[in-house]
Amino acid sequence: MTIEPNYPRLRVDALTWADVDPDRHPFDPDAVLDVVRAAAPAGGVPAPFRYDSARGFDHVADQARWDWQRAMTVALVEHYGVWACGWLAEMAGLTADGAMVLRWSGARDSITTPEETLDAVAGALLDWRIFLEDLAELFTRHLPLPAEPRAASVAWEATVASLVATVAARSGADEHWYPVCALALKWFLAVAEVPGEDHDALVDAAIGGRFWSFVSPLGAEVADAAESLAAMLTGVTAPPDDVWPDTWPQDWPSWRSTELPAAARAPRVTSPAVPDSLEAWRQVRQAARWEHEVEHVAGPVCTARDGIAEHLARRKYDAGRALAGLELARADAAEGGPLTFARLETWQREVLAVAAAPFRTTSAWARAGQERYAYRDELPEVFEACLAEATDPAVPLPSRAARVYLDVLHFHPFADGNARSAALALYFVLAREEVVLDRAASLLMTRWPASDPRGAEGLARFVALLIKQTRRSQGIRAQPGPR
C-alpha cells in the first residue's frame, strides 16, 4: 500500500491487536535487514548529530534527520503493514550474549554511519516483532479465562501482572514503557472479548496514576493495579488475608507475599482519589475576571530578543523540534486568523516529530500521578470553543494570552508535550497582535495550579507586566488599545 507521512495510523497508540497480531502478519526475520536497505529513503542516511559550539545548533540538518525517520517508517509500513510503525516504540532486545539493548532512541541520537543506522532500524523492528510474539504467547497461555468469578479474578490478576512485568522488563521503564503497557492491557481486553468499547476507561481506572514514564513500577503497585482491574471485571475483591507467592521479577516484593516476614513486606499501595484538575480549571476559568484584571494593549511591542524562543532553545534534548514548532506558530500568527486545534496539532507534530497528534481519548495524568485530567466525549469541542476565545478583541490581550496558556496546560489535549504546546499557543496569541516578549522564562518555568483563581488572574497581570517591560526595553511609550 502507498501512504502519506501524516497518515493518522502511523502511531503506536493507534494500533489494535488485529493490526499487530503476529498470526495475521507473516514475517521473515532473516530478511529484515535486506528489506530495510531496499526500503530506505532515497538520498541516503542524513549526517549524524554533532553539536558545534562555534556554529550553534543546525536546525535544518536536525529536521532532515527526523524527516528521514518518518520516511523510513512510511516505507516499513508500506512493506509490512501498520504494525511495523512500532519500531519506534523503543522496545529493547537481547544481544547474542544475553544483554538487553535498545537499538533505536530517536533520529537525533540513533543516526550514525549509514550502515550502522540501517542495522539499528532493522534491529529495532525485529525487537518490536519479538515483543509482539511474546505478547501473543502470553495471551495464549492465559486464555481462556475461567468463568467462575473467584477463579476469574485470580486469573485476571496473574495476567495483568505478567503483562506489566513483560513490558517493563523489555522497555527498561523508559519514556515509552507506560503508554505501551496501557496499550498491551487494552489489547488483552480485546482478545479476551471483554464486552463494551470503553477499554481505555477500564485501564485508566485500574492504573489510576500508579505508573508513569521513567519510573520502574514496584511490585506492590503492579499488584494493586492487577487487583483493581480484576475487581472491575469480575466484581470480586481479594480478602485482606489473601496471600501470593513472591513471584515478581527482579526481586520485586508483593504486598501479599508469603515469602517475606510480615515486618518486611511492602505495604499495600492505596491510590487516593485524585480530583479532576480539568474540571477545577473550567470552574476557575469561568469565575476569573479576565476583562477587568488588566488594560488593553496594542502592538507592535518587540525588541531584538524573543524570550519564548530563547527559553525553548535551552531545552536539553529536543530544542530543535520545539523551535521548528515555534517557526510554524510564528508563520501562522503573521497570516492571522483564529487559533484552532488544527493549528495546534500541526505545531505539535513538529515538536514531537510524529505523524499525527490527535486529541487524547483517555484521562491524562501529570506530576507523577498527583494531577488528573479526566476525559469526556465533549472535551475536543469544548476545547475548540476555548481556543476561539483567544482572539476575542473584547478581552484584553494579556488576559487572552494567559487564559489560552492555562487552557492548553489544563485541558492537556495531547499525549505528550502539553507545556510546549501551551507556550506556542501563548506565543501565537501575542504575536498575532505584534507582541513578542523579550523575556519569558519566569512565566514558562512557573507552575500555575488549575484550581487557583488568584493565580489565573495573577498570570494575566504577569503577562501584562512582561509586555510593559518589553515596551520599556523597546524605548517607546505605551500605545493604548481599544476600550
UniProtKB/TrEMBL annotation:
Q: Name one Pfam family in it.
A: Fic
PROSITE patterns given for it? FIDO (PS51459)
* SUPFAM superfamilies with a match to the protein in the record: Fic-like
Q: Which residues form the Fido domain?
A: 339-468
Name assigned to this protein: Fic family protein
